[in-house]
Write a structure and sequence with these properties.
The chain is α/β, with parallel strands linked by helices and 291 residues long. It has 12 helices and 10 strands. It has helices at 7-18, 24-34, 36-40, 57-67, 85-98, 115-127, 143-153, 172-179, 192-197, 202-209, 240-249, 268-290; strands at residues 44-48, 71-74, 101-109, 132-136, 156-160, 186-191, 213-218, 220-221, 230-231, 255-258. The strands form 2 sheets. Strands 1-2-3-4-5-6-7-10 form an 8-stranded parallel barrel, surrounded by 4 helices. A two-stranded antiparallel ribbon has the order 8-9. Strand 3, helix 6 and strand 4 form a beta-alpha-beta unit. The longest helix has 23 residues, at 268-290. The two termini are 26 Å apart.
Amino acid sequence: MKNIYSRRDFVRAGALVGAGCAAPSDVFALAQELRSADEASPIHLGIASYTFRNFNRAQMIGFMKQLHVLALNAKDVKDHLPTDPQQEAAALADYAAAGVRLHAAGTIYFAKDEDADIRSKFEYCKRAGISVIVAGDPAPETLPRIEKFVKEYDIRFAIHNHGPEDKLWHSPLDVLKVVKSMDPRIGCCIDVGHTARAGTDVVQAIREAGRRLFNVHMKDLTNFQSKESQVAVGEGIMPVRGIFEALVSMKYKGFVDLEYEIHADEPMPGVISSFAYMRGVLAGLGSASRD
């Protein structure tokens, strides 16, 4: 079918969807129209499986096909990516059959400063062919031990910041201070919502992370002081365009994964709206660069 939208139309349509000005059926149709923008986009979009934490693997794969998003940041929740090797193998077979590509896993927590525990988690990701571990709350004193496994497995280690509540990593800037002299495969997963709530300029944090930025968790908020103010991307005050502009300018090669943490029993309307908005913004950036 011929695409009747220009790139500027993508931006306007995406903005309308993000503002809640379209019915769910229209949002889904628009998401289908916008999927072609992904191929030309300099930014790779994916989804965090935690978004579908109340749904099993088969249901999640169905949702991903509806979204035309086959890039997954998987988590050991439900049966998405079990840590048991046999169960993991079954999950990987299902993903391969569906054309789903796993590019990251997490959040994975590193609570023990022990070789056996750390190795088991690197083996888990190695079996899945995953190149980025999204890590939650590794203690700074554990990082030298983890660094040995990063070198051995050649898997990037992206420390996820969790905002004001996080005892260790409020902001990506906290991560950068600690890892600046370590192996270049140790860096950040920037969660834009938690970063904003920590009082950090998200766009500036992305620029400062530079080549140590391995993954981005995308979400939106209507109030940077409230974790509970999350909305679909485009409905809040997150500087989405500025985030994408910064990523494009630094030639970011990783994924921007939507992590939609609200409406867990019925996430698809907000997820569809979020992807439509992000695709619209990215299409607009492509148009501007050509203009």
